[in-house]
């Protein structure tokens, strides 16, 4: 016969209770994000708002060759990631990941800027300079002029690509 435990029932607050599986999934997501941080460029990595301890752990990851050691270190990075603000880190990773919606949004925005700068002239240039005041106006004008010449002469779009790269650099600096 089972004793009556109705009076001893524990009530869980749905907002605070997490199942063991949910906690494990969150930890794996933090570990994955930490490992994706390793794929970032050095200048982007340096600008991230992370603790010095996490920064050193990420640098140390590159030296580890053993799979078992890498697995343990990955767990350690996940543990360190618990104390970090995840949103700016996720945003930085998404900006570099070509499969993310954020990357595609920025890519299309830069393409529109390039097309406007080549097609519309000074109006678009002034609008761009208002949006990105740190841009080098002389270099930008040179890239636009060369891109227009390539279009007229039906040459390969080398300057247009350079213009796009420069627009991307300015976009990354503005963030």
Automatic annotation (TrEMBL):
Entry keyword set: Cytoplasm, Ribosome biogenesis, RNA-binding, rRNA-binding
Subcellular location: Cytoplasm
One Pfam family here: DarP
Database matches in CDD domains: YjgA-like
Superkingdom of this protein's organism: Bacteria
GO CC terms of this entry: cytosol
Similarity comment: Belongs to the DarP family.
Function: Member of a network of 50S ribosomal subunit biogenesis factors which assembles along the 30S-50S interface, preventing incorrect 23S rRNA structures from forming. Promotes peptidyl transferase center (PTC) maturation.
Protein name in the entry: Dual-action ribosomal maturation protein DarP
Naturally occurring in which organism (per UniProt): Aestuariirhabdus litorea
Gene name of the encoded protein: darP
